[in-house]
Write a structure and sequence with these properties.
By secondary structure, this protein is α+β, with helices and mostly antiparallel strands. It contains 3 helices and 6 strands, in the order ββαββββαα.
């Protein structure tokens, strides 16, 4: 029996989403995604969701999904890419094609505004260093709300 890789990923979405034909990231990736979309005034979801993923141990090429539409791929695998960020941190992004070997458990979410309000208690969120934003988000996501159970 092949061993499975288990990890936690995060996604900016409606708080009731799934990962099928969607992208997700680690905490650093979510913070950097929000920073980019904020600077470009792009519309994003209103929650940050948490998923526990169990998958085949290999990664394939990362796919960028737009509205759940997959890019053509010869081998359906969970995709992964690592980007260097400020302060030598790494942001990890994932893609979850429908036909790949993975399962995800939705663990809940927090409203995106809760994250921004917590940051704004000390500084405007645009002035909070990104590595500090990762720490704040990690603390907030310790007990996410499971909207599917409500």
């Amino acid at each position: 029996m092949t061993s499975r890789l288990q990890h936690t990923v995060y996604r900016v979405d409606s708080g009731r989403g799934s990962l099928v034909n969607r992208n997700a990231a680690d905490l650093t990736g979510v913070v950097y995604f929000l920073d980019r979309t904020d600077r470009h005034q792009m519309k994003v979801g209103d929650h940050i969701s948490v998923f526990t993923v169990s998958q085949a141990p290999e990664f394939g090429e990362y796919q960028h999904f737009r509205r759940g539409i997959p890019q053509p791929s010869d081998i359906p695998m969970v995709g992964r890419k690592v980007e260097a960020t400020i302060n030598d941190q790494e942001a990890i992004y994932y893609s979850f094609p429908q036909d790949a070997d993975w399962e995800a458990k939705y663990n809940g979410s927090i409203p995106l505004q809760e994250f921004y309000d917590t940051l704004n208690e000390h500084n405007p969120h645009s002035e909070t260093p990104l590595d500090k934003q990762v720490e704040v988000l990690e603390d907030l996501l310790e007990n996410p709300i499971n909207h599917q159970l409500q």
